[in-house]
Amino acid sequence: MNILLWGVIPYITLFLVIGGTMWRYRFDKFGWTTRSSELYESRLLRIASPLFHYGVLVVIAGHAIGLVIPESWTEFFGITESLYHWTAAISGLIAAAATLVGCGLLIYRRRRTGPVFMATTRNDKLMYAALVSALLAGTFITLVGTVDPHGEGVNYRETVSPWFRSIFYLNPDIDAMSGAPLRFHVHVLIGMTLFCLVPFTRLVHIFTAPLHYLFRPYIVYRSRDRIPAPGARPARRGWAPIGVKDRDQ
Fold first, then answer.
1. Ramachandran region of residue 66, left (φ > 0), alpha (ψ -120 to 50) or beta?
2. Could you count the other beta carbons within 10 Å of the beta carbon of residue 6?
3. pLDDT tens digits, 196-248
4. Is 228 strand, coil or helix?
5. Quick one: which of 59, 148, 146 has its CA closest to 100?
6. Burial (CB count within 10 angstroms: exposed 0-12, middle 13-18, buried 19+), residue 131
7. Which of 27, 84, 108, 128 shows a CA-CA span of 20 to 30 A to 33?
8. Rounded Cα distance, 191 and 184, in Å
């Protein structure tokens, strides 16, 4: 069972994330969207969306630092385990609270706003269930580590982190992950389920960064000119050379 959970399923997850994303981009470019519902309701969205997105960015950054950077590296730069733990715990709890509140408001808005609820698919419901479950499991782990910082298995950088890095070495450290407490097993399994859903739900937009916004030309908005009176001289567009008439007049 440990080989299946920590040695096989991670590669199935990677295959689905990479292959599913490529498939979605190849065959469903028009569906690569968040299906924004801002036109239906914007009052709650203005509060919920920043809370959720900024909070989840901090959560992702915290996971990346904790899983990718070895404990020996932080010790080399003089960051003690105690300092690292409390920094991660405090920032993690703040980010988790913001993300959960934002996600809760988004779900409330989706349920209470008729047109938004009508546009909710089964995919959306499954995605929200996995997302909230992952957030709650991660928050529980952080709370346990905060209440008892010296408890068993609190330092996940000795168990979960080595296993995570070993996956990309194609030599998964199954013993390290199997030795982690049950709460980490639950959180990781929910997390892998969520990643498997990413290419097939609206979460796929996390792979799209609007970098082209930095290079696109300005959009100029102008009021429509009055129709000229019969015999009047046709107007010239502002960017047209002198002597060139407006073809739309």
1. alpha
2. 24
3. 999 999 899 888 866 666 666 666 656 555 555 666 665 555 555 555 554 44
4. coil
5. 59
6. buried
7. 108
8. 10
Ramachandran bin of 74, using left for φ above 0, alpha for ψ from -120 to 50, beta for the remaining angles: alpha
Cα angle for residues 167, 171, 174 (degrees, 5° grid): 75
What's the rounded Cα separation, in Å, for the pair 198 and 125?
Answer: 13
Buried b / exposed e along 69-101 (16+ C-beta atoms within 10 A):
eebeebeeeeeeeeebbeebbeebeebbebbbe
**Pairwise CA distance, residues 62 & 137, whole Å:** 15
195/198 Cα distance (integer angstroms): 5
d(CA 244, CA 91): 61
Lowest mean pLDDT among 19-28, 47-56, 142-151: 142-151
Between 150 and 179, residue with greater pLDDT? 179
**Which of the 8 DSSP states describes residue 38?**
T
Helix ranges restricted to H, the chain: 2-3, 9-27, 43-68, 71-76, 81-112, 114-118, 122-147, 160-168, 174-178, 182-197
Closest CA to 120 of 105, 24, 112: 112
The pair of structure tokens assigned to 214 is 């930095």
Residue among 67, 36, 17, 16 at smallest CA distance from 207: 17
Predicted structure pTM score: 0.79
The Cα–Cα gap between 153 and 188 comes to: 14
